[in-house]
Amino acid sequence: MASRIIILDDATASKIAAGEVVERPSSIVKELVENSIDAGAGKIEIEIKNGGRDLIRITDDGCGMNEEEAKLSVERHSTSKIKNADDLFSIKTLGFRGEALPSIASVSKFELITKELMSSEEFGITLKINGGKIEGIEKTGAPYGTTVIVKDLFFNTPARLKFLKSTNTEFSHIVDSVSKFIIAYPRIMFKLLHNDKLVLDSPGKSELIDALGAVYGAETAKHIIPISYSSDDLKICGYISDAQTVRLDRYMESFFVNGRYVKNFILSKALEDGYKNIIPSDRYPIAAVFIEINPSVIDINVHPSKREVKFSNSLDLTKALKEVVCDSLSAQMPNSQDDIQFNQEFKPDFIQPALIENIQTSTGSNRQNYAPYLQIDKNYIVTSINNELTIIDQHAAHERILFEKLKSNGSNDASQKLLVAETIELTPHEASVLEVNLKFLGALGFEIEAFGKNTYIIRSIPDIISRENIKQIISDIISEFISLDRSVEFDVIVDRVKKLIACHGAVKMGDILNENEVRSLIEEMGKTPNSTTCPHGRPTVKTIDKKELEKMFGRR
Known about the structure:
This protein is α+β, with helices and mostly antiparallel strands.
């Protein structure tokens, strides 16, 4: 009887290996740029067509390869980075497994052009591979360095091809990956082009602040502060945002361990703990944190794409990171009694008695009542309605009212023209996300137009929001788009964005309301569906009836 267990042929095994390394076009860009950096490149140019489906071309001026090395480089597990298993515990390069080139070549039409630096050879080498099969190798005129060309990605694995997202989504992942390289290696000049349009261009001046400006924009770079910590076995440096420059997501939190960009929850938590009680709990800082640590105490071989890292002892690291963040922020804050105003006593705001007419309850009945109002902590409205003590969260209640209005308006939301248009500078990643969603935002009442490289001009906004913090609103909406997978149903996206707009448009905790505003708020609550909770599910109102009051005071 034939054995049910077989050894896979090389072609099948290579495609399986490619599945681990090549998730999408950005995976290829990451692997090839890492090779260029390891080769000592001072200039790296990345050219993309159709989000990476049709073309990925990466050219560097690194050390290049001779003919023998070029042939070996496309063999599985061939590498110049390590010699044996012991080297895995002292890795100082970005690549080391020797899987990238053969994996990429097995699922694309692949071309490698290279010439060894300072070589006496007049010509370089061109090596062509089609779906993992070497089609030819020949001498060619070439500059020093290496160019890798990847065409028709996944042409021989249609199942993988159909799982790629839209062109803009795939390219946004590439922008994100290249942005991290620009920050990690400010000495290198990077250029990123998409469909012949320049998207990213870093100066390669060796200054981190210049690299951050190239990625996040000059305006953001004005609001970051340096951090620095050093001990015998640990160094931490980089930049973090000031307390006023925050985001809705962690997208701009970047950590680099021994030059490698990594994702690590404990590092994010330590960073955010440094901002505790300084920024709102639902906001996140911008950060580029560089950590130099002994390679023997970390493991970067825990993920196929080397995006994650494990520390053998993370306690000292997280403590140091939290402390350096706290210290740097404290140094930027006012430190004299004259600069800080303390509220020494609690003074509730009384609002004169007002007539509340025709307030409709959730059951549809009407009622009339005279009631005084008390605003506590500039957030909670306390009154009596139908002989019940009623406490209203003014922000949550107004948020529900505005959300229901946005829902009932459908795609024809009223907008207000700004007397003076606002401009907003975005990162290339954010700009690509906004560009795709301009029509959708237009239906919600925004009028936004491109106004130069990664800059947009805002001419109109929905009439339920004020122009204050309009840039923050746009930034938060973009963050919402980024956080949502493109496979999410459109109605879910619409719902999330409308909740965000309602949140920004609602009265805030700390806003003092006058009599008419309180009356209007309560009247609108009576007309609004689901008015007992905000769009996020938190309660908007609490009541205590006469029986409960009597129990509280021992009268029952």
